[in-house]
Amino acid sequence: ELSNRSNIRSIIALDSNPIKSISAGSKILEISTPGAHGAIPGQYVTLVDVDSSIDGIAASEINERHIISSVPTTTTFRISVLSSATAGAVTGGGNSVIASFEN
């Protein structure tokens, strides 16, 4: 389905366990990319192949199309999900997460 979208700017294979919860009670996740992602807040990113829940947030909530809420660094970006993290500072996602960035 993603290949049918003409607005895909880049598709990046992420490193192992690239997703981190920020703090207990927070609905914000930070995703690390192996190189500069070039994304800006307000753009869309679709995450796929997250293998299990992260800090109490179901994989099905993360394997979605998200609005990028902020870009702390050239190799990290943040998204908001529906559920709150349990503990905070927990990483996960597995070894095959793919991020597709839209213009």
Number of helices: 1
For the largest beta sheet, what order do the strands appear in spatially?
6-7-3-2-8
In terms of DSSP E residues, the strand content is 35-45%
Low-confidence stretches: none
Largest sheet: 5 strands, antiparallel
Helix content: under 10%
- Secondary-structure-based class equals mainly beta
Q: How would you portray this structure in words?
A:
The chain has one helix spanning 59-62, and strands spanning 8-13, 19-21, 28-32, 44-48, 65-67, 70-73, 76-80, 91-92, 98-102. With 103 residues, it is mostly beta strands. It starts with 7 loop residues before the first strand and ends with a strand.
Detail the topology: elements first, then pairings:
Elements: E1 8-13, E2 19-21, E3 28-32, E4 44-48, H1 59-62, E5 65-67, E6 70-73, E7 76-80, E8 91-92, E9 98-102
Antiparallel strand pairs: 1-9, 2-3, 2-8, 3-7, 4-5, 4-9, 6-7
Outline of the structure:
This protein has 103 residues and is mainly beta. It has one helix at residues 59-62, and strands at residues 8-13, 19-21, 28-32, 44-48, 65-67, 70-73, 76-80, 91-92, 98-102.
Keywords summarizing the entry:
single chain; about 100 residues; mainly beta; 4-stranded antiparallel beta sheet; 9 strands; globular
